[in-house]
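Dear colleague,

Thank you for sharing your sequence with our group. We've completed the structure prediction you requested, and as agreed, I am returning the results in plain text so they can be pasted directly into your records. Please verify that the sequence below matches your submission; if there's any discrepancy, let me know and we will rerun it promptly.
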Amino acid sequence: MPMHTGMPVYPGDPEVLISRALTVESDGVNVLALALGSHSGTHLDAPLHSDEDWAALERLPMGQFSGPVELVDVRPAGGGTITAAMLAGMRSALDPEVDPGAPRRILLLRTGFSDRWGQDAYLSHPALDSAAAQLIFDRGYRTVGVDALSVDHSDGADSALPAHRILAGNGCVIVENLTGLDQVAAALEAGSEVEIFLYPLNIPGADGSPIRAVARVTPAVPAPVSRADVEAAAGKLMEAFGATDTDAYFAAFSPEATFIFHPERESLDSRAAYRNLWESWVSSGWKVLACTSTERNIALAGDTAIFTHRVATVVQDGATGGRIPNDERETIVFTRMADGNLLAVHEHLSPVPAPGGTS
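Please find the predicted structure tokens below.
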């Protein structure tokens, strides 16, 4: 959350005041004076925040401030209680088969309340019940973040702060007032890996610190393409072409696909351009009557494959209604998309040369 004078703070915490201490005009440099509490804005709670006998900031291992993300959508809780049942599907912070030295996952709870930042409604956020807090620790998490003011109620409903007592009492770091978890959710849903960084200021003896929370997204690596994948994709494309099934046919192509067809004077630089041409043929009465694929060959290259074949077609001429046979060679390049689908990104059609001739 952006830091500014008068920004929202937890009830009773010090107000934030940011002012100019020095200016270029008067002093040759610009310097701001900052007055704020250790839990202002997006911040991190050290265990010391909840008990005098628990660890201060500098005693926490650096590994608790960064790691891969496990995100749980708890928006259905509204302003009520986040229960253990809502968290039952979360993974463990460490997979049993992973090297014990691997970084633990960091748990992020998406309440949706960051959208209410600066409003009175921000105080009415949901809170973890004791069983949920205990489950988080039992699953191995040592850092948990939330896009709300606290993991406990902030409206005075429970002054005992049970979630803080359980999490902080077990050495966990609590991060509050996060924002942008919708972007994190979208990246994870797309199959990407997300790593988060939550580094505090180096303040000896501190009970917490403002932080700059940053998420780094590593896009998912598409799975390698197999021969079976290509045969299935090509078969689907050819079946739709043979049936003059416009929607199914063009669903086999990427929107950015390009096309080179020997009867056309210019190449087509998008699926939309080809579809416009195709629909003009169909509207004139043109359609595919027969389609046979032979002499197939597949070359694999990671997430891409090149499919070549000889294709004999018979089409109905739109102007005369007559039957027109074609004997052509076709090259189709398929690529694995981010969503896992295998789509054609390029198609090149050329005539089969006459015996003794060239093309």
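Summary note from our side: The mean pLDDT is 94.

Kind regards,
the structure core
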